[in-house]
Amino acid sequence: MPTFICMMKCVSGKRSYASQNLAEEALIEAHINFEYRPRNGPTTVYKCEECGNFHLTSLGEMNAQLALQLKNGYIQKQKQAIRWKNKLK
Q: In terms of DSSP H, where are the helices of the chain?
């Protein structure tokens, strides 16, 4: 999965993503790079009425792409790859 750059911030102070696709990639990347407790952390994306871009949120139903990546084990495999990479440094 590519690493992406958040280009701007919203007046709300949240990171903004120019498209839903970029926000979904950021959501999945966050779950790979951080250890969230159950029912904690971002679970979906939404379009902001203030800036017109997309943000991550922990409110609402889980994003379909995130649910799929959790279910098929992709996120866990990426976490394990990072752990091994860190061990081999």
A: 20-33, 64-71, 74-87
Per-residue pLDDT of 14-24, as tens digits, reads: 999 999 999 99
CA distance 18 to 56: 12
Pairwise CA distance, residues 89 & 74, whole Å: 23
Helix or strand (DSSP H, E) at 54: strand 54-57
CB neighbour list of residue 55: distance below 8 Å, 6 or more residues apart? 10, 12, 14, 15, 16, 17, 23, 45, 46, 48
Token pair for 80: 């394990």
- Strand pairing of 15-16 and 54-57? unpaired
* Distance of alpha carbon 62 from alpha carbon 64, whole angstroms: 6
The one-letter amino acid at 55: H
Residue 6 confidence (pLDDT): 57
